[in-house]
Amino acid sequence: MNDHSSRTSEDLSGPMKIRKMTLADLAQVVAIDQVSFSLPWPERSFHFELTENEASRCWVVESEGRVVAMLVGWFVIDDIHIATFATHPDFRRQGIGEKLLSHVLRTARGEGALTSFLEVREGNLAAQEMYRKFGYVVSGRREHYYNDNGEAAILMTLGSLADFDASIETKLPSETP
Ligand SMILES: CC(C)(COP(=O)(O)OP(=O)(O)OC[C@H]1O[C@@H](n2cnc3c(N)ncnc32)[C@H](O)[C@@H]1OP(=O)(O)O)[C@@H](O)C(=O)NCCC(=O)NCCS
To answer: Whose CA is nearest to atom 39 of ligand 1?
Structure first.
């Protein structure tokens, strides 16, 4: 993860909206991805997810017309796999990631998902901490998973979407269309 600690965080003053990602969001989504990951996805990957991959569930959080977070999930059989997920560095630690993940898990559960699975870099303790709050547990490890630095991937599984932390659910934003 990149270090943006020297940058000034922005506060969310207006209402926050969680909605499906559209092609019009692509530039902002790609920009968030590029400042968030050392191996960002090319734009064509997000395009594919939005236009061709029927398993994809693509979401953004919008505040005052600006995309501040994004998540792509893959719905496979009864599992929602978190494929990529980031909050813009200027908007982190304001609960946005948690609200977005909650929304995605709850929506996937409504579609019939029973479990959730993801890979996270071994050194990405912030993300691991967030996933732990939701009840994800470490379920495996893949050595030398990431091409840029050979870092291992930690596999995390949320075994039962029915049980994801009730205290987190109480903080959910109201539904948006
Ligand atoms: C991981 C990420 C999506 C979290 O987004 P966010 O909007 O900042 O998350 P939230 O503010 O909702 O934080 C939720 C919880 O995550 C944990 N967390 C988030 N950032 C953290 C940090 N820097 N250090 C420790 N814990 C952290 C905390 O438990 C936090 O809850 P708290 O603020 O009540 O302590 C964001 O840091 C990010 O985009 N990182 C880069 C991309 C990435 O790593 N994505 C995940 C790939 S698997």
So the answer is: 86
In sequence order, the 6+-apart residues with CB closer than 8 A to the CB of 167 are none
Q: Domain 16-169 belongs to what architecture?
A: 3-Layer(aba) Sandwich (3.40)
pTM (2 d.p.): 0.91
Q: How far apart are CA 120 and CA 127, in angstroms?
A: 7
Query: How far, CA to CA in Å, does 167 sit from each of 98, 100, 118?
Result: 12, 15, 22
The residue extents of the domains of the chain are: 16-169
Quick one: what percent of the chain has pLDDT higher than 90? Answer: 82
In this prediction, residues 61-72 reach a mean pLDDT of 96
Residue 93 alpha carbon to ligand 1 centre in Å? 6
In this prediction, residue 164 carries a pLDDT of 72
Mean pLDDT on 110-139: 96
Pocket of ligand 1 (CB under 6 A): 1, 36, 85-87, 92-98, 118, 120, 124, 126-127, 129-130, 133
**Average per-residue pLDDT for the chain:** 89
Residue nearest to atom 35 of ligand 1 (CA): 93
